[in-house]
């Protein structure tokens, strides 16, 4: 996360680019809740160093895909590969240890732990090795958290909880960061801040980001590439710019919104 | 006055043992929301393990220092009982995780019946006595009727052990990464897994810690009463569970506080009113406290901003 670690990450990036192997690859994934099918055979890739966004309406299956990548719920069919390894059947906690982090739907802050302890939990996989350094870093990104370090997670406002969820995900120094609706319920000014931070993480630290959003305009402007999901299927894909200009996307997700 | 002080000492001793057992109930309930009804029998089992090894060490191996023998017995009982705790979770509870809520509860009752019957068959149905281990007492003062108010060494050992262990485990849960992982699993198991916490292992460890503390309680129980029987798991188990609820289930200091309160009510009621109704008194106080403080004395209120 610091300047010192960005160099090895960049060299890694060029190695991956040479082999053209995506960092995360989802193939034909089907996920069920009981007998109800939620993902109907999803294919998508996230390449190293990219920001990829997934947009879609409520209930399309975006968050289910996020959680399926982590094996909870588990994909009933299809494969998920991360950095060349098949992680489809790997236990959730082992997947987290491959330096994938998620800021999940509903934020899932530990309500009876302090902000500080929540951040310590985020650094669990590397045993708090770079904790002080990373704490300082996330406090610079989110000064509001710094004032609230000894406060319990459950007493934070919605926006502060969102910041904490993202900060906690960053504490593990992830190579791939999964963000589920980071803008949900936040004031426009804070949304803007969060998107700026995502961009910085990507450009300065070479962090790969997979972003689920309902705020399609902001997400597509930020992302290199995007996918559109409708009731468990990927229906469209392309660069952020292409999707922004696509008439279907405009009609379904943008008209009447920003711009 | 003399009787009061003596009963205070006796009550705190009994309460310490309840408190140690109650920690096992409270931690398991905290992490998987299940009442481990077999915990009282795990406690009874550990008292038998302590009894057997105490006899082996003193009669067969001829260790004459009681303190040394007790220390070795304590360690052995903790290790073996932990293994039992681990195995019970593995066999009877883990396969039922994700099943309907009552399934592990019924399974726990089954384990409880199994353990008491197992001990009955293996050790016999009669009370098993040990020779008194520690007899020394300190006479604090002489009362009006020539009644000596005494604090026995074994009571000191029991109270001190409880205090030390509570401090250690409180530190463990509040300050170490294991304790943090435990609390995280308590609050949101799914999120804990997303952060790389091995939830199954954390739950196993909780059972192991609970069983180890039950083993300490079992050894101290044997030290205090010098006798144990196969059905000694039930009543102390229920009392300790009551203590956990009274103190606020999920809270470690609450469990010990609840244990001390139950122990004190019991001894004072026996001394001043009637010994037959001591359990009625203890459970009545529980009911009254819960009416006014539904989450127990140190329990957290249910309301939470999400």
TrEMBL record, chain B:
One of its GO terms (biological process) is L-alanine transport. It comes from the Bacteria. Keywords: Amino-acid transport, Cell inner membrane, Cell membrane, Membrane, Transmembrane, Transmembrane helix, Transport. InterPro entries: ABC_transp_permease, BCAA_transport_permease. The chain crosses the membrane at residues 12-35, 42-61, 67-88, 100-119, 156-173, 203-223, 243-268, 280-299. One of its GO terms (molecular function) is L-phenylalanine transmembrane transporter activity. It holds the Pfam family BPD_transp_2. The keyword Transmembrane applies. GO terms for cellular component: plasma membrane. PANTHER family: BRANCHED-CHAIN AMINO ACID TRANSPORT SYSTEM PERMEASE PROTEIN LIVH, HIGH-AFFINITY BRANCHED-CHAIN AMINO ACID TRANSPORT SYSTEM PERMEASE PROTEIN LIVH. This is Branched-chain amino acid ABC transporter permease LivH. It comes from Microvirga alba. The lineage of its organism: Bacteria, Pseudomonadati, Pseudomonadota, Alphaproteobacteria, Hyphomicrobiales.
